[in-house]
């Protein structure tokens, strides 16, 4: 049994952990809707800097976590890693490896791992509460690579190592920053509200050869017909968010606003007329009743 395997068995507070002898760590899976759902005291959270081209899974981030070993009383450092399913299919297992790097970006160690018994739906985040204990205290960075993915529909995805292309995540999102023009943003929002009313507009739609980025901000595999996060249909987005349609919807909006203004003006006039009428009626009735009231009080 390797050193890592030993550590893993000792420190785990999860009994169903086991290590198979094919060289892979079998890790217990946890599925979350958002990263916020996963509360853990993390010393350092590192957003993974790249996306493996065409991979249905993105490494969202990993955390260095301090954890007390109740047997020895020592504080140990662990790693927790979180992934997001960016495909349109449910994922049941992934296999990968992690390279541990020191402050000089030099490889210290490589781990192989598998996460099984997952049911990660499109857009969902999954991962481990604790990855593996870090014995080497010089670890500063971890590069996680996904090499194999199994889907619920028994389809498989394997990394083609020769063609592996790493796309810096920041580049993808920087390209997508929405126009600064507030009016234009407002116009796009009018159209977006019709496609995905519950989801806030965040990004400009970017379609590259490898992926598309939805207006809700989610990264999607180029093969996704629906956004993995907000479920908007790519075809609807492409059809609706065109310069022509944006202007058309904006014109409709202005027309509605004009109608609303007219309605409000009419209502206001009506209310005002009624108010004056009531005042006059009250005044005239008070005038009539004045002597009798006066008589009643004297
Ligand atoms: Zn979306």
Radius of gyration, CA atoms, in whole angstroms = 31 Å
Element pattern in H and E: HEEEEEEEEEEEEHHEEEHH
Secondary-structure-derived class? alpha+beta
Runs in which pLDDT lies below 50 for 5 or more consecutive residues are: 1-21
**Beta-strand proportion:** 25-35%
Termini separation? 109 Å
User: Please, how many domains?
Assistant: 3
Tell the overall outline. elongated
Looking at how many chains there are and whether they match, the oligomeric state comes to: single chain
The major sheet is characterized as: 5 strands, mixed
Mean pLDDT: 80
Provide the helix percentage: 25-40%
Ligands in the model, by name, code or SMILES, are: zinc ion
Number of helices: 5
**Strands, total number:** 15
Spatial order of the strands forming the largest sheet: 1-8-7-10-11
Explain how this protein is built.
The N and C termini lie far apart (109 Å). It contains five helices and 15 strands. It has three domains: 3-168, no CATH class; 175-241, no CATH class; 242-282. β14 (211-213) and β15 (219-221) form a beta hairpin. The model is unreliable at 1-21 (pLDDT under 50). It is elongated. α3 crosses α5. Helix content is 31%, strand content 29%. With 298 residues, it is of the alpha+beta class. A five-stranded mixed beta sheet has the order 1-8-7-10-11, with no helix packed on it. A five-stranded antiparallel beta sheet has the order 2-9-6-5-3, with no helix packed on it. It has a three-stranded antiparallel beta sheet with strand order 13-14-15, with no helix packed on it. Zinc ion binds next to loops. Zinc ion binds at residues 214, 216, 218, 227, 229-230, 232.
């Amino acid at each position: 049994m390797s050193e890592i395997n030993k550590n893993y068995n000792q420190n785990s507070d999860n009994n169903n952990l086991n290590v198979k002898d094919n060289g892979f760590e079998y890790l217990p899976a946890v599925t979350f809707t958002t990263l916020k759902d996963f509360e853990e005291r993390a010393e350092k959270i590192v957003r993974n800097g790249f996306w493996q081209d065409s991979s249905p899974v993105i490494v969202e981030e990993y955390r260095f976590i301090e954890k007390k070993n109740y047997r020895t009383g020592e504080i140990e450092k662990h790693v927790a890693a979180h992934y997001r399913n960016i495909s349109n299919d449910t994922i049941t297992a992934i296999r990968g490896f992690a390279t541990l790097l020191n402050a000089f970006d030099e490889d210290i160690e490589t781990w192989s791992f598998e996460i099984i018994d997952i049911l990660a739906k499109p857009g969902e985040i999954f991962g481990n509460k604790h990855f593996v204990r870090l014995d080497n205290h010089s670890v500063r960075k971890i590069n996680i690579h996904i090499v194999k993915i199994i889907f619920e529909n028994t389809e498989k995805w394997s990394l083609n190592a020769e063609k592996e292309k790493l796309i810096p995540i920041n580049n993808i999102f920087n390209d997508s920053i929405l126009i600064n023009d507030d009016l234009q943003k407002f116009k796009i929002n009018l159209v977006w509200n019709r496609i995905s009313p519950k989801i806030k507009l965040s990004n400009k739609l970017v379609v590259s050869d490898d992926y598309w980025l939805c207006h809700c901000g989610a990264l999607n595999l180029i093969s996704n017909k629906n956004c993995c996060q907000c479920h908007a249909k790519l075809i609807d987005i492409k059809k609706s968010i065109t310069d022509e349609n944006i202007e058309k919807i904006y014109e409709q909006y202005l027309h509605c606003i004009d109608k609303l203004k007219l309605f409000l003006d009419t209502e206001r006039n009506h209310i005002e007329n009624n108010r004056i009428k009531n005042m006059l009626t009250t005044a005239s009735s008070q005038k009539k009743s004045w002597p009798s009231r006066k008589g009643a009080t004297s």
